[in-house]
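Task: encode each sequence below as structure tokens.

Item 1
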Amino acid sequence: MTRTERLASFEELTKLPGIKRASVFADELANTARLKFDHPLAGRPWHIDGVTDVPGFYHLSVAVPIGLDYYQSRMDYARFELVLFETEFERIQ
């Protein structure tokens, strides 16, 4: 099997539902979102970590600085995570 044939078979494989190339998947993971409902951290951009096993639901996370660490040398962050349906947030670029 030549290189061209392997690439053609890979392209056919990526046309199946649920199978994506790494570049497409990375673009989806690089997205950020804004929450559409009232939440203390709704004003911050949330990172879309990926999809769940249930269609339409996504893992979102945000890191919030909470102050200096014990040694006063760097900021500590609290990480918050949510699982939301796609209508509860909007993607921002």
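Item 2
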Amino acid sequence: MTTTIDGFIVTATMKAYGICVLGNWNNGIFNTDSKLSYWLDGKFNGGDFENGFWYDGEFSQSEGKKSRFGAKSFNSRNSTWYGGKFFGGEFHSFLN
């Protein structure tokens, strides 16, 4: 189990909000439940990007892990894609 928030190497299932500037996200939940969250750059390899603002980076799905963008989007907590590369995974406006 590896967890590094400042360097953003996450291999444990966890929940985070805030700003990801550069790093690797390997599993867990990224959302804006309590504050706005921004993904500025980095590699998202697995887990749920539930809601927030995606500006740049790589969104993909590693073997054996699901990657879902917008899994918990709703009117007051949007999932907004501004740019970046979508290599694989699921793209939702809400997950039922």
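Check on item 2: The chain has one domain: 3-91. The two ends are 30 Å apart (CA to CA).
End of task.
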